[in-house]
Amino acid sequence: MTRAGGLPQHELTAQLLRITDELADKFHGVFGRETVERFVDETYALLNENATVKTHLATLTARFAKQRLHDYGRAQGLTKVEVPQVLFICVHNVGRSQMASALLEHHAFGKIAVRSAGSQPSGSIPSQITEVLAELNIPLTQAFPKPLTDEVVRAADVVVTMGCGDSCPVYPGKRYLDWEVADPVGAPLHRVREVRDDIDRRVRSLLSELLGD
């Protein structure tokens, strides 16, 4: 029997079918079932390719597929856009982009939609990253590395890159910022705090600009 993501194939198929059913119901009237099924299958394949630990892959597939469908609907003009959306990109999506997205969500109080992705997502979020954010009462319990996909870039109003080179697609009408921020992964804790504070200053400035404060 073949196995994928740590599950027997029939169990995996059943879980992906359940996810498709739930998302097809949630996005009823926006997307047909075939579109939802395509996103679920593609999302699982993307995460399975890059995941180091695959124990919770089905759960992550459900969360990421839901986000991708929201972004696809936003990019296609099929869903109502209520707030600006910011996308943070770094290489592995375990350090700078995760810190930036967590900090912006913390300060924005729902006034900004926030996404993060990696040009080459891999690994897991280091304990030093979660620790320095916890010092500001920002939990990072639900975060995981996500691949950079077309619809998340199309849905963004502002795309912030941090050390990922030319891997991000460029679309007209988007605002692109390149933040030269040190990589905190593998650095001692005091340096990670310095990176956190650097990103925090930049995030606060961007938020003020976007909200016109």
Automatic annotation (TrEMBL):
Organism, as annotated: Lentzea sokolovensis
First-level EC class: oxidoreductase
Domain Phosphotyrosine protein phosphatase I: 84-209
Pfam families with a match to the protein in the record: LMWPc, Phosphatase-like_N
InterPro entries in UniProt: Phosphatase-like_N, Ptyr_pPase, Ptyr_pPase_sf
Entry GO MF terms: arsenate reductase (thioredoxin) activity
Record-linked Gene3D superfamilies: 3.40.50.2300, Corynebacterium glutamicum thioredoxin-dependent arsenate reductase, N-terminal domain (1.10.8.1060)
Protein name: Arsenate reductase ArsC
UniProt KW keywords: Arsenical resistance, Oxidoreductase
PANTHER family, alphabetized: ARSENATE REDUCTASE
EC number, UniProt record: 1.20.4.4
Entry-linked SUPFAM superfamilies: Phosphotyrosine protein phosphatases I
